[in-house]
Design goal:
single chain; 419 residues; alpha/beta; Rossmann fold; 3 domains; six-stranded mixed beta sheet; five-stranded parallel beta sheet; 14 helices; 14 strands; 45% helix; globular; Histidinol_DH_CS
């Protein structure tokens, strides 16, 4: 393996101060509820609004600020996301009357969580696409109460109008103008205006991420997400400028994002580096993208595709692009990734917005143990069983012996009474 461009190593951030700050915010929200939320709104966003919940009038006002094309684009993207979520939902089925032995009947039900909050970041950009990616699968899953929240535009006291329209098109039930760690605390523990939920999903900054970590248990979460990542595998058969564009598409997210190329062709790797530098000369978001690429961008040359596969499975990237002539030959070898994009025609940004798969994905090696947000994120598989009197009597001695072996005599007695 040869490294053409090395990235800076991510160091374990000293989380002690961050943890303390977030704990203080959570404690304040728990104690002072809506007043704490309004205090943070004034402090961080110059927001003076009194009502945290977004009204129907605000939503209608947001629609009036968008063009017909913008609204149509959001609806088209939503249609693809909804169609795929519905197809996924059909694969998750109940199980009835499985019998491991005569007279015992086992099964499971698929039950949606009762309520959730979809956190839509504001940050550097209004990520209205995330509203579609979170709310739509929750609604398709059958969640009865789907709330959403997002930070307001600084000094304006309102959520970005395109984000509001996206939330409405997605089918949200409630919208709240609040963000940050304080929003996570509010939906975890409740305030006067905000009833607590069973689950919180969605990405956010390090304060949001830490708040999700601290509130987990009180509320369910999707996962703890970090900076965005893309890893491209290329054999040199593709176009350097295309790969460069995909790397920078991730790099522009923020200065901590990571774009990585793994290639079997050193000449191609060098050409991609040149193409990245060329695009940075004209890219409007070059200030962020350049810092990200300089710090965390990486280009690695490997001896063969199998070495590339092994590297990917160890790294477990959020987005995996296969810029290969014959990608079908190696697809089955990849087991650790958030979402895969096969062939040069399949841009990762298509998945970010409109092709239909979800863009809320695991980062920082979390793909080793979880996939991204999908309709199943909002579903519980709950088991059940029943048995005949004959089966109960037949099973009781086995359970009695097992309970006796563990020293749990109450368990043994509950089995023995059914002999």
């Amino acid at each position: 393996m040869k490294i053409l461009k090395k990235s800076q190593e991510r160091t374990e951030e000293d989380r002690r101060e961050l943890s303390r700050l977030v704990q203080d915010i959570i404690d304040n929200v728990r104690a002072n509820k809506d007043e704490a939320l309004k205090e943070y709104g004034r402090k961080f966003d110059a927001c003076e609004r009194e009502q945290i919940r977004v009204s129907k009038d605000e939503i209608e006002e947001a629609y009036a600020q968008l063009s017909e094309e913008e609204i149509a684009d959001l609806k088209a993207a939503a249609s693809n996301i909804r169609a795929f979520a519905k197809a996924q939902r059909e694969t998750v089925k109940p199980l009835e009357n499985f019998s491991p032995m005569p007279g015992i009947f086992l099964g499971h039900r698929i039950i949606p969580v009762n309520s959730c909050c979809c956190y839509v970041p504001g940050g550097n950009y209004p990520l209205y696409s995330t509203a579609l990616m979170l709310i739509i699968p929750a609604k398709v899953a059958g969640v009865k109460r789907v709330a959403a929240c997002s930070p307001v535009m600084k000094g304006k006291g309102k959520i970005n109008p395109k984000t509001l329209v996206a939330m409405d098109i997605a089918g949200v039930d409630e919208i709240y103008a609040v963000g940050g760690a304080q929003a996570i605390a509010a939906f975890s523990y409740g305030t006067e205006e905000i009833a607590p939920v069973d689950m919180i999903v969605g990405p956010g900054n390090r304060f949001v991420t830490e708040a999700k970590r601290q509130c987990y248990g009180q509320v369910g979460i999707d996962f703890v997400a970090g900076p965005s990542e893309v890893l491209v595998i290329a054999d040199g058969s593709g176009t350097p400028a295309v790969v460069a564009a995909d790397l920078l598409a991730q790099s522009e997210h923020d200065v901590n994002a990571k774009g990585m190329l793994v290639t079997t062709d050193e000449t191609f790797g060098k050409a991609v580096i040149e193409a990245v530098e060329a695009e940075l000369q004209v890219l409007e978001t070059a200030e962020i993208a350049r810092k990200s690429w300089k710090t965390y961008g990486e280009v690695v040359v490997v001896d063969d595709i199998q070495e590339a596969v092994d590297l990917v499975n160890d790294y477990a990237p959020e987005h995996l692009e296969l810029n290969l002539k014959n990608p079908e030959e190696v697809i089955e070898g990849f087991v650790n990734y958030g979402s895969m994009f096969i062939g040069e025609n399949t841009a990762e940004v298509f998945g970010d917005y409109a092709s239909g798969t979800n863009h809320t994905l695991p980062t920082l090696k979390a793909a080793r143990y979880t996939g991204g947000v999908w309709v199943g994120t909002f579903l519980k598989t709950c088991t059940q069983q029943s048995m005949t009197a004959e089966a109960s009597k037949k099973l009781a001695p086995l359970v009695s012996r097992l309970a006796d072996g563990e020293g749990l005599m109450g368990h043994k007695a509950a089995a023995d009474i059914r002999k």
